[in-house]
Hints:
Elements: H1 2-41, E1 50-54, H2 61-72, E2 75-76, E3 80-81, H3 90-100, E4 104-111, E5 116-123, E6 128-134, E7 137-144, E8 150-153, H4 157-163, E9 173-175, H5 192-205, E10 209-216, E11 219-225, E12 229-233, H6 238-249, H7 252-264, E13 272-274, E14 282-283
Parallel strand pairs: 1-5, 6-9, 9-10, 12-13
Antiparallel strand pairs: 2-3, 4-5, 6-7, 7-8, 10-11, 11-12, 13-14
Amino acid sequence: xxxxKSKRMRLAQRRRKRNMWIFFLCASFAIGVYAxxxxxxxxxxLEIKYISVQGNNALNAEELAVTVERKLAKVRFKLFYGGxxxxxxxxxxxxxxxxxxxxxxxxxxxxxxxxxxxxxxxEREPSAMWCAYIKNIKHxxxxxxxxxxxxxxxxxxxxxxASGEYDIGNMIEYxxxxxxxxxxxxxxxxxxxxxxxxxxxxxxxxxxxxxxxEIFDDEAEIYGDNMPTLKIKLNxxxxxxxxxxxxxxxxxxxxxxxxxxxxxxxxxxxxxxxxRFGNRVYYK
Length: 284
């Protein structure tokens, strides 16, 4: 029994020594590779020297390139210089660019050889405006894209309208509450797209020229030139609401009402059409 136990102990000791040697060799190899990569990452011949920006319109290509260069200079894992095509942190750079430049809609980075990075971008295009009001006085206005994402403050609205850039005069203006800083957030994230489509169809399928929309909690009021105010609920099926609106404005009773109102409208009040009660539509 004693001899058999001693033999087992000797075998166990050999296995431990063997495992320790294997661990030591693997650790040494890993450290060697790690150090070699760190040395290679600072080789001038492998350094990224050129950054080409493609797809920009309003954003300055040189500014974007400088921003990327600054991020490439970071050291990764406390050893690797991030300025080569083998060691740069692609995901981190893309995330930082999207956060720092809200106008950016999409960013892709790819290497072209070992010394050039190509920054391929898509920019958000202004589709509507959100304006902040203080005591019913328009204060600041911001561009939104087609999905209601607020991405840029309009520095001077009057100058922007006068320049004709982006056709601001025909953009729909939205008014409603934002908690905190507006840039980088989506206005009405649960309702904006359906509301946008609803307004587009009103403009194309009726004679109403919509100009701006004001939000009150889960309701909206839609205003325009020489048209009644339209009152809707955002949670309703707006395609059905549109059908009720078209039936109403094309009805003989509404046409008679509208003609009489136009004849007697001395105060410039175009009245309203209330669409908040299903197929029961009220107008005044």
